[in-house]
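Section handout 9: paired folding examples.
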Amino acid sequence: MLTLDLRRKLATPHQRLRPKRRLLTLLPAALLFVLATSGCSQIHIAYNTAGFTIELYANRYLGLDDRQVASWRPLLSEALNQHRDEEVPAITALLTQAAEDVNAGLTTAKVSAWLDQLEPMYQRHARLFAATVAPLLASLSETQINALEKKFQEQAREDAADNSPESLAKRKRKRIKRYIENIEWATGDLTQPQRELVRKEIGEFPDVDTSWYAYRDQQRMALLALLRRGASTEQIDIFLTRWLAEFMDMPVDLAQARDKMRAGLIQTVVALDPTLSEQQRLHFEKQLKTLSEEFQSLERRKPTQAPGV
């Protein structure tokens, strides 16, 4: 439900959040993955160490030298402050509204409104990521670019092994399991009929792995070509923004699948709502309220002006 979108959609527009395998969702994915999977009581710790976590991940992925890390650190800090000032309040507001909606009962209009807010929220994260990581990518040496290409190739081989026609049923089972786990985080344990409802609805989602991997690999190769030509920070920023925020050159079948998955998610939530027990509804509302309060506590307080100033 909403928590599923916080864990996946805010971080990435695709079916799965796999932060250790997606360089190009590094900033939003790493930050939001840390926040959303830490548990409410640990959000403060997770957020306050997010800069270190992202820096460490980028360093390991790209093989940065000390000079590159030192040069990038202020940019990362600025991006995290911008996120705290601009995006955390938006997340807080969405969670607060969602909790109220759960209490009153969920409708197609209400769940659609959640997703209408999540889409531009993701795009803002993607733009922030592009602006933050572009200077780092522009600083890569030929050796580092070659190493990045090797990582991309290794990941492509791993994904190809998981993307055979024989794996279709397995991917479907794993996808359904992920949705059930995320829903149960919100509602507590589902009954068997509720689980069957989710299996039926999510089981009809399109399988987009083949198209997604092909699209991702195409864009990665374009990025590598850009880096090898010595592209400027601005050029890399524009490319990443068009790819990650605007879905440049996305195949028609992938765009259509995104629309179908959105409609399917709304249908699943609305169908599940009348089956919720009072205890499940209260659990769902409490989870959202607690998250909202935790994120609200992260908001930076603006200094107040003295009277007459």
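Moving on to protein 2 of 2.
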Amino acid sequence: MKLSVSFCAVNGYLEGGLSYPDALSAIRQSGFRHIDFDVKQAMADDPEPWGCRVRRYLEDSGICAPQAHSPIFNPLLPENRARWSTFENSLLFCKAAGIPQVVVHPGAIDGNSRAEFFENNIAFYRSLIPACEQTGVGVLIENIGNPADPYFLASGADLAEMVDGVNHPLFTACWDVGHANHFWSAESSQYASLLALGSRLTALHVHDNCGYFPVGERHNRIDMHTFPYASLYSNVNFDAVIKGLCDIGYQGTFNFEVIAGNPRRYVSPFIINGREENRLHMLPIEVFVHLYRALYETGKYMLSAYGVFEE
């Protein structure tokens, strides 16, 4: 199994003026040769020329993108219906960039029942079939949900049901390990969910969080996207995850959707004498390379422990 990292890891640097070739070079220097590309360009009216440029950037950097991620918004809200072209643009972009599959998040409406959630999302995903067939690019449906929100894709069985409901060979599953850890019971594991997905699973989002606490502990459901082993309280059981991947013969990459070193968007500004101090706003790109090199080595250790690491 090959290691991969989500390109969203460098979004803050891109927003700060770093070029795409330099961002890809930083990822390559950290050890990764595969990425999950962040398709922000799908918001543009004409994504194909940009996709062609990205293809050249990838080829020049020696990096492959086996998967991508479309822009995230709730497609089922009435005010977002006019934005569905964003997902078709994502498919056009990926075809031009040579990326075979792209994550498209499901949507939800407050108060929807499980049956309504499935009916609405299956109709939404089926609306993308013509664009999928035109481009040959697949859509990855990602698990998301917990008892506190109107999404009902918390388990592998749920996600398998959604993929089967769409019933098209270009629609498969992306298992988000961090999402699955939210409200996970202490008596179960992600292993059973991965077995339920089986060959439907073609992509991963791997990260850690402190998504479950036993009764009596304060629950903290934050989609943290941290490195594995990075916190005292992070508690994804990666043995269950990797053993499940091995037992279903998973063929995709072990893709880290980890975000660190970027601008700290959730930190309040520090103002002193009428001036903001932000010298520590983000890590220099040179330090980012060392940080993500540690992530690469962590992933190599994890996969090697099960005999499935590939260069």
